[in-house]
Amino acid sequence: MRGDNHGQRSRPEALCEAQSAVIQHTVARRHARVANVGDEWIVAGATLGAVDGGHRILVGCICAQAIDCLCGKDGQPAVSQRFEAFRVYGQMCSHPRSQAILGAQMEGLTSMLAYIALLRAVNVGGTGKLPMAELVEVGKSIGLTDPRTYIQSGNLLFRSDEAEDVLRSRIEGALKDQTGLNTSVFIRTTDEMRAVVEANPFPQAAPNQLMVLFLAEAISGDPLDGAKGHKDEQIQAIGREIYIHFPSGAGKSRLKLAAMDGVQGGTMRNLNTVRKLVELHGEA
Length: 284
Hints:
By secondary structure, the protein is α+β, with helices and mostly antiparallel strands. The protein has helices spanning about 10-30, 40-50, 55-70, 80-90, 95-110, 130-140, 165-180, 190-200, 270-284; strands at about 115-120, 145-150, 155-160, 185-190, 210-215, 235-240, 240-245, 265-270. The protein contains 9 helices and 8 strands. A hairpin with a 2-residue loop joins strand 6 (about 235-240) and strand 7 (about 240-245). Helix 1 (about 10-30) packs parallel to helix 3 (about 55-70), helix 2 (about 40-50) packs antiparallel against helix 3 and helix 3 runs antiparallel to helix 4. It is globular, with a radius of gyration of 25 Å.
């Protein structure tokens, strides 16, 4: 031991030992399936016991990153759990530099966007069968964060720092390769979905009678161009969505829009579903 530390390790030495312990533990558990991050927090806490002052938050961040590394591919911990890890470690030290480091780590997490992927023609009329558990596994396999589904119509909620076009291509490709399902996927951020709800041009319509047709790109002409079976339905296009009010009920309608069919056709969800998807991602 060094004399100037009176038998105690210096902060850099303690930090290096803490880093080493976490790295070794991470390597040892790399391939383990971790469903609960609690055990990893215990290891992190034991490591923190050897470190004092402003360096505690440094080790805390390292430990939290180790948790992420351990669980990211297998256990898929929720983003909220990762935030909690950083929050706990942040309380251990109020040093300005430590708080700055904590802020940088938190910013890294918040750079991920909340996305909703809408699959076309899944589990409808006996075609496009896809168990939602398989859809979640597809999401995990391509590295999506916190993938989960809502009802059986092919709605996948997740987080990612990748662009929409990249995500759409990867999800469609993985679906075809892993499940044999060849379908189109339409992606929106949670903010975009919230804007869809707020832009509703038919506020008087019952939510279950108002459908939103999601498209990859905005149409250039009148949504009724080439339409068939149009009766009392109210239709309005706003951006990449077409709102359709079915006063007599969607089940009785014979409406066929050009944007519903073909290679460029979109996928529909009723307003209740759209609202619920926004609500669910808002709770994540």
